[in-house]
Write a structure and sequence with these properties.
The protein has two helices and four strands, in the order E-E-H-H-E-E. It has 125 residues and is an alpha+beta fold. It has a four-stranded antiparallel beta sheet, with helices on one face. The protein is elongated and about 50 Å long. Its cofactor is Zn(2+).
Length: 125
């Protein structure tokens, strides 16, 4: 199995909407780091798993979309707690719409909200 990983980071804000969230219930910032790991059993005719330019363009679009935004105000989080787990799923859906290489069979999206805490959403594409 081949795997190719690309990274970006940006600052965004959120607050948790669960009962009794403590200090996480008020708006606060994180320097989110996003890792996209594409996996597949074969390479394409050029010996690539994924077109890095397409993957990096998807990352740039993600950074542009979420940088300096309050996640709670965005339609993709409407009705949901904007947890780092939910954020990983939202990013997965955006990336699988943008990067469509036939050699990619799985995508893992890991979102780090600080140096010690991250969540991953991983599924077939």
């Amino acid at each position: 199995m081949y795997a190719t990983t690309v990274l970006t980071d940006f600052v965004a804000q959120h607050y948790l909407t669960v009962p009794d969230p403590g200090p996480e219930g008020v708006p606060h910032s994180h320097r989110f780091e996003v890792e996209l790991t594409f996996r597949g059993p074969e390479l394409n005719e050029y010996d690539y798993l994924v077109d890095i330019d397409d993957a990096e363009a998807a990352l740039a679009d993600l950074a542009d979309r979420y940088r300096d935004e309050l996640l709670n105000d965005l339609p993709e989080f409407e009705g949901d707690n904007p947890s780092v787990e939910r954020f990983a799923r939202v990013i997965f859906e955006r990336v699988t719409d943008a990067v469509t290489d036939e050699t990619v069979g799985e995508l893992a999206v890991t979102v780090w909200e600080d140096d010690a805490a991250a969540a991953t959403y991983d599924a077939p594409v």
